[in-house]
Amino acid sequence: MEQICYLRSMNETVSSKLPNVGTTIFTVMSKMAADYGAINLSQGFPNFPVDPVLENILAEKAKEPVHQYAPMAGNPGLLFEISQLIQRQYQRTVLPATEVLVTAGATQAIFTTIQALVHPGEEVLILDPCYDCYESPVVLTGAVPVHLPLSEDFTPDWDLIDSKITPKTRLLIINNPHNPSGKILDSGNLEILEQLMQKHPHLLLLSDEVYEFITFEKKHISVNTLPTIRERSIIVSSFGKTFHITGWKIGYLIAPEYLMNEIKKVHQFLVFCVNSPAQAALADYLKVTDVTALGAFYQSKRDFFRELIRESRFELLPSEGSYFQVADYKSISEENDVEFCKRLVTEYGVAAIPLSVFNANHDDRKLIRFCFAKNNDTLTQATERLCRI
Questions:
Q1: What is the CATH number of the domain that holds 353?
Q2: 125, 194, 227, 323: which has the fewest C-beta neighbours closer than 10 Å?
Q3: Cα dist. 91→84, 243, 250 in Å?
């Protein structure tokens, strides 16, 4: 009894640094899917095999002496191959030793960047709906997250963004291709972004481009291709998304040396280095794989999913990139999107993600997100259930 009272007393003295953070909706929906035996189209991870070529390379690398700490910034061979990938895809020359950093996934890259470059009292502009890993590092660094809504078609409201930039605004975060909507910023939007950055020379840009190779009819334009602003930009990429290896938790970021020096200072005390065998395997895999084939692979899955669900009561929004499909369910129910997604699991056996959770103000437009990075059998079974609604 005394120990219970002591623990309760200790708990009451803990002041949370993230008082508004609880269990994420991704965890909630995946647990519900498991509890009810539902098909999980909520979390963004594939359920099909990794490329056998990569598996074989990893198996061979595991027999080599690659099991101790890698250099802090990354395996030199992998840093070089990343620089070659950037050159091939975006015609940008980056220096492997000073402008590339291998990270423990994109989330760590984003967290590290914000901790390194944003100071207490400064402001960070976040465009909603957005992935949930942007705000917490801003709060933890003592800065102020400023959430601004995207337009109805999920493009930035540049006039609104411009009006919210103050001398305290340190960082603007963009996500392109966009999660959850699948929207891709076109050349017109990126021209406006360049003008905005030039108008506010104190502003830095964090460009989350983890779905950069998963694009369809409209091609992704990377900030890597924009010389006017890339010297003030940090660009985040993900091997997990690109190569269907989300569990490896490995990504990278590109930044000019003066910014990278500060980012590395935080990185070395956060993780120091990243999984050595995985880095060694990816260094070899990048020499033999073709990332340009990824768009066609996922476009076939997108089209397969859209065709199967076409006869349902859901209205599908455009999906230009990523492996997500947003659907409008207003013709089905007036429930809020969280309750509708829960009922979708319990009554129809399919898990999805409500879009309101991506908005700081929980704006509910009766939209939900499906992940189509699944094998065809899974997509067929899921859409059969969705078409019965």
A1: 3.90.1150.10
A2: 227
A3: 9, 22, 23
